[in-house]
């Protein structure tokens, strides 16, 4: 009986290499964006994650999550709109002193964030049963991680420690989701 | 559940990606089924049986069965 040729090992090697390249490039690009916005941490972390994911995808390996082409378009467009608005808001808000611009810019940013959230929901709905299950379980893990971290921060605040920026909650949630997906990937490997 | 998916696929020299495309699911799903980490739903089980021209029982069996 002949062994089926999947090209799995070749794909894995390319995926690892491209992920590493994407990780570094994303970090550099994030640093560049951070130099304009002043928020280095968020920009660099976002760049690293996106760079690694894009590198993985570029290796020609099938997506871990195989979204439909339409879902990918929605994700990319809404993601770019949200990210651009967020960066622009961070850059411009320091130059506005309590004017109505700040409120309108915040609402616009949240609007695009809502569109991105809807795009994510639509993308998940296009997945097959197993991948949809993985995403939902990953969201649950992310929810738990976020809850624990926020609880910790709140309790530490009661002890007198300074409270971090509330904006950190969103990247914590996304990070928890990513951790959940990585853990579940090990289970279904 | 146990299954003979890997054997059946190998007999036809299909890759996981090829079978996944035929079944309309991700390669990850085929891999998870073969590794018995995931039991497919009825529609997918019937689809796989149709692809291999077998009954569902010809591909899948409960864990208590031993070959």
Could you explain the architecture of this structure?
The complex is a heterodimer of chains A (189) and B (67). Chain A has six helices and no strands. Chain A starts with 7 loop residues before the first helix and ends with a helix. By secondary structure, chain A is an all-alpha fold. The relative contact order of chain B is 0.22. Helix content of chain B is 51%, strand content 6%. Classes of the chains: A mainly alpha (189), B mainly alpha (67).
Produce the secondary structure layout:
The complex is a heterodimer of chains A (189) and B (67).
Chain A: H1 8-37, H2 40-58, H3 69-93, H4 100-125, H5 129-158, H6 169-187
Helix pairs in contact in A: 1-2, 3-4, 5-6
Chain B: E1 2-3, H1 5-11, H2 16-23, H3 27-34, H4 42-52, E2 60-61
Antiparallel strand pairs in B: 1-2
Helix pairs in contact in B: 2-3
Poorly predicted parts of chain B: none
Q: What letter string, H or E per element, gives the SSE order of chain B?
A: EHHHHE
Sum up the overall morphology of chain A in one term. globular
Helix content of chain A: over 70%
Main beta sheet strand tally, sense and closure of chain A: none
Proportion of β residues of chain B? Answer: 5-15%
Oligomer: heterodimer
State the separation between the terminal residues of chain B, measured CA to CA.
Answer: 13 Å
Number of helices of chain B: 4
Distinct helical segment count of chain A: 6
Query: Radius of gyration of chain B over alpha carbons?
Result: 11 Å
**What shape does the CA trace of chain B take?**
globular
Reading the helices and strands of chain A in chain order gives HHHHHH
Helix content of chain B: 40-55%
What is the number of E strands of chain A?
0
The largest pleated sheet of chain B is described as: 2 strands, antiparallel
The stretches of 5 or more residues of chain A where confidence is low (pLDDT under 50) are 1-7
Identify the biggest protein-protein contact and residues per side.
A-B, 21 and 23 residues
